[in-house]
DNA sequence: CCAAAAGTGTTACCGTTACACCCATGT
DNA sequence: ACATGGGTGTAACGGTAACACTTTTGG
């Protein structure tokens, strides 16, 4: 929400003299069962604009950056404000600073993206002005937010292919099949269960528990736990380059809006 | 409640009311022959601070974001301003927004990183207040700029392992051995010439010319040309996820300063 | 006993790595 | 001729993909 104190009837020269406004927005992903198939799919919460510009359209949660907050804190806070949830993973996506992103004023948005555990996501608040939508096939959003979501999705998919982040969409304990479902949902392709299992077991940070998931129709699968630094929420630390995390910035940063 | 000496006579509440300042900085890489070995190594230009804070220390080139510029334009401009050069590659690195990056004022810096062709880099301007330094083993810099450079280096190295960016450090035409030298210089390890050659030839976007580099002591190597979208300088385009560019955001974003 | 998911074993495939070898040129 | 980097051939290695197979549960 690039809401900015409308600068009343500011004349042009005055507007030019002012620095660009700075806002934080967040793309929040969570898994929810699809209405049709019941299988998990990606959803995200949006906020309805209650004033111009783009009044009535849906937009990413966000707000101005206040003096006392770091960028990360600001992102976490507006995640909390809109959904009532705490992120399981939170990372900077990109800074969007095109000249005409907002018709009324020059705004630079620093956008974060977050993953929320599915167990918590069920309790997420909804209201008249906050609703969840399927991440694919979104309607037209305010500002350049369609592009931003598209880019966030690309990042999520890209990262899921090599990084240990799928767990952040699940609860504390999970079966390997559930992890596989996450991959299939996010990457939108089927994955061989046998090979997938082996790859996961090689991956450090994923530990078997003594528990098994009961209540299924078949052989009860073992539950696992993710023991990677749980603070993936906050300080992704000081530039050690981990083995698995190939990473690198977006091969393609998004259009320079 | 730390006392901040600067900011003239601004009282605290006034400072809190102001939005954080927004600045653009750029980490500019170019290859220059090492003084000792003569082999190419990574260098970058820094600017000496002529006022507080950190007066006398070296810092990344940068400045405030003006109303009329996109983020990318601003980065390109201050690259031009400090070195007199045009970037061959330019990409957003990260937005740094920690609370105490600058002692006097809250500043959010959106940092870009750039590659400059070695042919041009030779003509780069130097002066009392602008000098080039070897990218590794830098002295203490102003602000959090040591961290930023460290992160930019990590990104460069990471990207070089899978992306077609080495060419941006060379001239228009180059031998495969020169490309290999770039890899060796940046990644700091030796690369098998035979295998490297084959990998490059598979890579799309690199085309042989009819010319050969004369004047060497041995068999003249063929010259090649990079025909990838040359606008890698500017619009890295609309989110097509290319095959080679695995990419994904920094596995680890830098410390949230 | 049967269906279906959990979990294991095995093999083919493919890209990378290591390194032996030939080619072309200046001295 | 010979030293040296340019350039090609080839075989071992390692990770992934495909898929047959065994195990364990509920019905």
Description:
Two copies of one chain form a homodimer. In chain A, the strands form two sheets. In chain A, strands 1, 2, 3, 4, 5, 6 and 7 form a seven-stranded mixed sheet that branches. Chain A has a three-stranded antiparallel sheet with strand order 8-10-9. With 257 residues, chain A is an alpha+beta fold. The first copy, chain A, is elongated. In chain A, a hairpin with a 6-residue loop joins strand 1 and strand 2. Chain A has two domains: 149 residues, Nucleoside Triphosphate Pyrophosphohydrolase, CATH 3.90.79; 68 residues, Orthogonal Bundle (Arc Repressor Mutant, subunit A), CATH 1.10.10.10. The N terminus and C terminus of chain A are likely disordered. At the A-B interface, helix 1, strand 5 and helix 4 of A face helix 1, strand 5 and helix 4 of B. Chain A binds a DNA duplex (27 and 27 nucleotides) through helix 6.
Question: Main beta sheet of chain A, described?
Answer: 7 strands, mixed
What's the CATH first level of the largest domain in chain A?
A: Alpha Beta
CATH H-level superfamily of the largest domain in chain A: Nucleoside Triphosphate Pyrophosphohydrolase
Identify the quaternary structure here: homodimer
**Biggest interface and its residues per chain?**
A-B, 59 and 59 residues
Global Rg of chain A: 20 Å
| Annotation field: number of helices of chain A | 6
What is the approximate shape of chain A?
A: elongated
Number of strands of chain A: 10
DSSP strand content of chain A:
15-25%
The CATH topology annotation of the largest domain in chain A reads as: Nucleoside Triphosphate Pyrophosphohydrolase
**CATH architecture descriptor name of the largest domain in chain A:** Alpha-Beta Complex
Instruction: Give the proportion of residues in helices of chain A.
Output: 10-25%
- For the termini of chain A, the CA-CA separation is 16 Å
* Average pLDDT metric of chain A: 84
The poorly predicted ranges of chain A are 1-13, 233-257
| Pattern of helices and strands of chain A | HEEEEHEEHEHEHHEE
Q: What structural class should be given to the helix and strand makeup of chain A? A: alpha+beta
Organism (chains A, B): Arthrobacter psychrochitiniphilus
Keywords (chains A, B): Hydrolase
InterPro entries (chains A, B): NUDIX_hydrolase-like_dom_sf, NUDIX_hydrolase_dom, WH-like_DNA-bd_sf, WH_DNA-bd_sf, WHD_NrtR
GO molecular function (chains A, B): hydrolase activity
